[in-house]
Amino acid sequence: MAPLPSGAIVVSGLTRREAYMDSSTGLQMALNRARRLGVLGPGPIEDHISHAGGFMAALEEVPVGSVIVDLGSGGGIPGLVIADARPDLRLVLLDALERRVALLEEAVEALGWDDRVIVLHARAEDVGRDPAWRGTVDAVTARLFGPPATVAECAAPLLRIGGVLIVSEPPEQTDRWPIDGLAEFGLEPADKSPAGMQVLRQVELCPDKYPRRVGIPAKRPRF
Q: Which residues contact 191 (CB under 8 A, 6 or more apart)?
């Protein structure tokens, strides 16, 4: 038997990659591990996966080969679920916390998705100002990333014209996405959104002054 790669983790005699790839429940294993380590909330894993279904519905019309950025990927919802269901997409799992990034990197490697899923350790504000990313992304997803104005300011700079921002919403109906406020970032509400989701479309490139420096979108939201 060849030596294990540096840092490999053994699960019942198998490396974690072998365990995940030999099991039809690799995604559930990854999410269970995230929950045990405290980076995914409580409740049945099936409920977390089901909640990600709203994102999947909103992504139905996103074409093959599209680039999707998941803001604040955390324990992998919805990013890992999207990667599992849509192998035709290219996913970027973005998170600022090293512990979460390490867990996501481990899951992506174990699931064999290295060729189509990138885990990016960075602040969204910094990525939004990077010319390599700015205005290039087809869709941005966000779950529990922050209040509407913060999400909009961090997501819009990444999106190309015609790209979409998909955000999970609380059950109650509130006016959380004012049209005038969204227009500040080049966004407007899409014609329709799945239940529990808000879908916004990038109709103009986000102005160069956004995003503001790290932390300011949350401290001084525009709406």
A: none
Q: 166-201 as b/e, with b when 16 or more CB fall inside 10 Å?
A: bbbbeeeeeebbeeebbebbbbeeeeebbebbbbbb
User: Is pLDDT larger for residue 172 or for residue 62?
Assistant: 62
Q: What are phi and psi of 215, to 5 degrees?
A: 90, -25
The Cα–Cα gap between 183 and 152 comes to 10
Q: Which residues contact 170 (CB under 8 A, 6 or more apart)?
A: none
- Residues with Cβ within 8 Å of 183's Cβ and at least 6 positions away in sequence, in order, are none
Count CA within 13 A, CB hemisphere, residue 9. Answer: 11
Write out the two tokens for 26.
Answer: 């690799």
Domain residues for the domain of 42 are 10-219
Answer whether residue 193 is part of any domain.
Answer: yes
The answer to whether residues 116 and 82 touch, using CB atoms and an 8 Å cutoff, is: no
Q: What are 113-156's pLDDT values in tens digits? A: 999 999 999 999 999 999 999 999 999 999 999 999 999 999 99
- CA dist., res. 71 & res. 60, Å (int): 19
Beta bridge partners of 164: 139, 201
The domain that holds 196 is classified in CATH as: 3.40.50.150
72: number of Cβ within 10 Å: 20
3-state secondary structure of 25: coil
